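Example record

One chain of 241 residues, shown exactly as stored in the release files.
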Amino acid sequence: MDTATDAHHEKADAVSAVDRALSILCAFGANDQSLSLAELSRRTGLYKSTILRHLQSLERRSFMIRATNGNYRLGPMLLQLGNAYLKGFNLEGVLLPLLESLALETEESASFFVVEGGSRRCLYRVDSKQQVRHAVEVGVPLDLRLGASGKVFQTFSDQSGKAINVLVKQLPCVAAGSAPLDISSISCPVFGADYRLLGAISVAGPEFRFNDECRRMAAPILIDVSRKLTKFMGGASTIFD
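Predicted structure tokens for this chain:
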């Protein structure tokens, strides 16, 4: 075997080792204080002997700590990295490109809503390039009971992780056009850690154009944006799968 082939195999082995170590870290859920070696093996599909080798490296770097009962818990290095991530995180820098992409693909206006003081408010928005379009002023309080984003807040607020996993199967929330504005919208939630509802991503347009067929076509695009933003915000993006 020549040197180039040896180097290739060494690189492949190194990448596989990193993947296995990361799979061990990712085996921990939001509510897991510690996991046994057997449970780590079950969740990752790796042999216990393989996991033990990686745990030694993870412990040395403080990514993992072995508890007194023999189980393993996440280490302080992850908190350090998490703090570094938060300091460098720019919501506008992450959110606006996603809204721009969403508005471009659906050809309708895209918005991000949050709940403040018993109302929903549009925090960021990218308008459709269509001549006739839905318009919402950023920062203006709106009725929490109305619109597809209002349905998101009513449906997903104060829900447990188990309930949320069921409710996301019914996404997106839909508000079909009605007089006097005849505006239709679809919306999906954005979650942070521990299934905390952070906001709602919406696409809206006039009913004559953003009709049932167009809403169905836009739905998977919107859900994918919610998945991406939830991942950026530290939430469990896999709930959208």
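Notes: Confidence is low (pLDDT under 50) at residues 4-9.
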